[in-house]
Amino acid sequence: MQRQIELPAAVIFDMDGVLVNSNPYHLEKWVEFLDHRKISYKKEELPELILGKRNDTAFKYFLGPDVTPEESHRLSEEIEETFRKVFKPHARPLPGLDALIKECHAADIPMAVASSAVRSNIEFVVDALGYRRYFQTMVSGDEVTHAKPDPEIYLKAADHLGIDPADAVAFEDSYVGIGAVNNAGMKCIAIASTFPIERLAPIATMAVPSFEDINLEKLRALFVAEGKSSSLAR
Fold first, then answer.
1. pLDDT per residue over 123-156, tens digit each?
2. 233 three-state secondary structure
3. CB-based burial of residue 118 (10 Å sphere; 0-12 exposed, 13-18 middle, 19+ buried)?
4. What number of other Cβ atoms are within 10 A of residue 81's Cβ?
5. In the chain, what are the domains?
6. Which of 35, 56, 206, 230 is the most exposed place for a label (fewest CB within 10 A)?
């Protein structure tokens, strides 16, 4: 017997810059890390070098390609522990996010997190927001082989949810994150919390200033707009 699935079949969220406004705190920790080691950098270039990417990618860029996985893991644990302590008092959902998550939950739409962050950071943020019960799965950057913009993390989330990636919507704020969603074949909504909306709009399915500009009806309209029914037989 076939069952009807309302589109989107799932909604997937990046974390930093999507669930929470944590990116300024991540940048601050990297400035301290680089300054302490007297590593030269251009501050205006840091957002694109750091945000949305795994720590090991950034370590290889700043410390050289020979940094070992063990050293990368040690440094990552060090700076992320500092991040959690500093960010904890500021952990709150982006404006409009709470309403959208509760709307999707009421409609029985599965939700997930797919973030380049380490697992401990994801659990820390999700628990600080009280959102763990809303997410059927959470996939971290240290659980995939290939970093964003490779689609692996989004394809893995879709597999965990048991849905076709083409039937899902994902929220991102970074260029590499948007690339990962696009490469996974999902609809991508860019949240302009980190980068200018003018730069996000051309590469995402839709770009909005904040979650206050989006709701479930608009998510479903993304599929109707391309001639795909708002419900599919499975």
1. 999 999 999 999 999 999 999 999 999 999 999 9
2. strand
3. buried
4. 12
5. 4-21+92-233 (3.40.50.1000), 23-89 (1.10.150)
6. 35
